[in-house]
Amino acid sequence: MPIAPGHERPAPRPRRSRPETPPDDPDLAARALEIHRRLCPVYGCPIPYFHSLDPLSELVSSLLSHRTRNADSGRAFKALRARYPDWAQVLDAEPAAIEETIAGVTWPELKAPRIQAVLRAVAERHGALSLDFLREMEVDAARTWLEAIPGIGPKTSAAVLAFSVLRMPALPVDSHHHRVAQRLGLVGARVDVGPAHPVLRAQLPADWSAQDLYDNHEILMLHGQQVCHHRNPACGRCVLLDLCPTGQARRGAV
């Protein structure tokens, strides 16, 4: 039925992805530590770093990995390095050639020009095609520098600092980590992955080392992959069940 003039429904307000609980909530901090304490023996802390790339290479690797399985992004990265041993060569390459080289990742047609644009921005802003200088900066300042480049968000900036040979104390949050944190009530249901980064970092001790934060990311990611699945989480074998509002609700509904 048509709506009479003057009685139009107001436009819906845009949804904001914001923390629903203060990040310095002491109860959440205690829960975050207990979660870490329980998961560490399950997944074997301290967890070895999965590779040791220079920070610029880690940046390219992270850009390739977006919405792509690790095995596929890893093959694409190796193919890119084999074809272009120097990242400066990527800047001079035809985007179509880069796209062909990384064809195994999701959206290679978007990632090829994005990688070139990001590398160009690094060279223009720093005066050299290198990110080694980040080791001289504080973590927050280094992440701000990286995130000023279009195409680099919180997950990528944290990955560059945490996963590369810089080994800086930054906390990446991927989709598995984020899903587990939401189900455990560490972040609200409407808080997206990007805004979840400062919330989850603030719940952990400020003086934690790079290894501590890397372990925290890895154990929550692994728990999401192996137990807290996107569909049909295995709540019955979860060591966090008594801490998990989502698991308790699922168990009560059975």
UniProtKB/TrEMBL annotation:
One annotated GO molecular function is: metal ion binding
The family this protein is said to belong to:
Belongs to the Nth/MutY family.
GO annotation (BP), single: base-excision repair
**Gene3D superfamilies assigned:** Helix-hairpin-Helix base-excision DNA repair enzymes (C-terminal), Hypothetical protein, domain 2
Residue ranges of every copy of the HhH-GPD domain listed in the record: 64-226
Protein source organism: Methylobacterium durans
Compositionally biased residues, Basic and acidic residues: 1-21
Keyword tags: DNA damage, DNA repair, Glycosidase, Hydrolase, Iron, Iron-sulfur, Metal-binding
**Pfam families given for it?**
HhH-GPD
What is the protein name given in its UniProt record? Fe-S cluster assembly protein HesB
Query: Which residue ranges does the record annotate as region Disordered?
Result: 1-26
User: Which cofactor(s) does the record list?
Assistant: [4Fe-4S] cluster
